[in-house]
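Hi R.,

Here's the chain you asked about this morning:
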Amino acid sequence: MQRWLSPAEMPGDWGASVVTVGEFDGVHRGHQRIVAVARQAAADLGLPVVVVTFDPHPDEVVRPGSHPPLLCTARRRLQLLAGLGVDVVCVIPFTLEFSRLGPDEFVRTVLVDQLHAARVVVGENFRFGHKAAGDVPLLAELGDKYEFAVTGVPLLTEDGVTISSTGIRTLLADGAVAAAAEQLGRPHRVEGVVVRGFQRGRSLGFPTANLEPPAQTAIPADGIYAGWLVSLDAGGTETQVWPAALSVGTNPTFGDQDRTVEAHALDRDDLDLYGTHMAVDFVTRLRATVRFDSVEALVRQMHIDISDARRLLTAG
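And here is the predicted structure, written out as tokens:
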């Protein structure tokens, strides 16, 4: 897969292509269906597929401080899109100047002049141009003007619920990581550098990796979870995976105020992970975070949590 950090990086001899446009935060199953439709259209036309996305998130530029929690890092988003078999991901730097492009100007400069779109595939709720003035019917009109076809893909719904990045964030905020995984098509992942914490886990017999995620990461509700601890190389490729018990919260038993994301790799007390880039994948929630009356009571519960995590992660 090719990656262009702006349309200006495209080869000078680039020909026609099938284009899909969106933020694609999380690359959830609804996004995956849009990309699949684009890939099929490209196969029918014998053309490459280009995914156009943006960085930073448009909300952070247009309305600073309103940035929603991100379901994945920019690098992870590119990896997930590559896994869907697209030919190119074009990341457009989203600036105030770019945000002021009207719908016609956006279509002409990006989709027509630069990407030579023969077909544009978007979700049926797609909006574009200054103040989100453009919608799919307008895109189809502009397609007639500039000679490209438009496909609006219906949103993916299950049991009357529309799969969306906003909905997945709500599930995570409620701690419903298993339901979020169903909509994502994989467990929700939080990445971060392992930093030194209070090191209480090691003194209690349960050493943990304390992750420091990037700002505005979508982190599940406080609680204890079963999941996976994942080692990543410099390019973000997985190198090792361990079953783990995960903790999100402030650790009220010790009166801590800082919210942390910690992972205990099951049956491993020999890992030295400080300073490394890791990820945790959330599989299911075991329980809420509670304050224990004693350290001994906490340790007893930690043994139960680890046993529950092991059973759930090794089932089947």
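One quick note: The longest strand covers residues 238-249.

Cheers,
M.
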